[in-house]
């Protein structure tokens, strides 16, 4: 659970308030009482109390040895989604994540709502579990000094500022690596560190448009559609998460840190996979297919009497099975549909026949008929159905405990 800093009076330099987060104080094994950095001489001694206590050698690390990142400290200067998602995943693996927020308003997503739980945005809470939070005015030299001193005793530094902004405050990679040569410094940006667009701010929907994702998403012959969740942000967060893990392994071998750039544009273009390959190798410009697939037929949602079912036939045997379940065996022997290539070429006629058949029964009836068939299938669930699904509930049980079920 995120531990927030709460204070009636705030320091003019770091805005931590007259009391620093108790959980953060205890986690740093500091015996010092709460302080205000502008009014107390204790800040230098407080920061000095964990100088050299990089969590690799922290005596508290053994308390959580079951998790692979126990003993790793993350200094998290990210906001919104891609960065917080990456650091949350690191926190889930046992890392200590110290989230640094802007004084006053904090992370932008604290105001993204409704819904709210009390005063907290549910959006913010969804990507900030397992973190501790402090507020620091990094534009003030004393605030920047706090960040440097925290970086010196951290393993990973993650930020998602427009390139050059942190360097202006003396917090760029070159600055931090001088005092913390071990640091794994991950920059999450919209467009990378170079090129004509590198200083543009990056938001998911814009990057999804520029990268081509919106060009291929939406109904056939319809308008572009944004995916229901911010997939470009989430993909970038996962790339950053994996890159940080790899960099920690590399540092274990070399003893040296590194600077990595994970940007929205490159991440989403990488996720175009076969769509990009089709264009680069065959100059095939893709189109929008709704729930269908450009290269596999049938592989899409079909409307039933009361809802939708998604069915995918990835090979000829599966297609034959689908036809048997639908009582359309004659279709599977039709020369126009004998293999996937032919089915793709004759998509329109085949889908019309299958769609008409699916409309004859309710979704639950089709689910029963497909059960055990070996064909991939499933309903389009609402959120209530997702979280009441027995399979979802089973997967929510920790893996180590599943043998007891």
Automatic annotation (TrEMBL):
Its EC number is 2.8.3.13. Keywords: Acetylation, Mitochondrion, Transferase, Transit peptide. One of its GO terms (molecular function) is succinate-hydroxymethylglutarate CoA-transferase activity. Signal peptide: none annotated. This is Succinyl-CoA:glutarate CoA-transferase. It catalyses: itaconate + succinyl-CoA = itaconyl-CoA + succinate; 3-hydroxy-3-methylglutarate + glutaryl-CoA = (3S)-3-hydroxy-3-methylglutaryl-CoA + glutarate; glutarate + succinyl-CoA = glutaryl-CoA + succinate; hexanedioate + glutaryl-CoA = hexanedioyl-CoA + glutarate. GO terms for cellular component: mitochondrion. It comes from the Eukaryota. Coenzyme A (CoA) transferase that reversibly catalyzes the transfer of a CoA moiety from a dicarboxyl-CoA to a dicarboxylate in a metabolite recycling process. Displays preference for succinyl-CoA and glutarate-CoA as dicarboxyl-CoA donors and glutarate, succinate, adipate/hexanedioate, itaconate and 3-hydroxy-3-methylglutarate as dicarboxylate acceptors. Acts on intermediates or end products of lysine and tryptophan degradation pathway, in particular catalyzes succinyl-CoA-dependent reesterification of free glutarate into glutaryl-CoA to prevent renal excretion of glutarate. Pfam families: CoA_transf_3 (PF02515). It is found in: Mitochondrion. Belongs to the CoA-transferase III family. It comes from Eublepharis macularius (Leopard gecko).
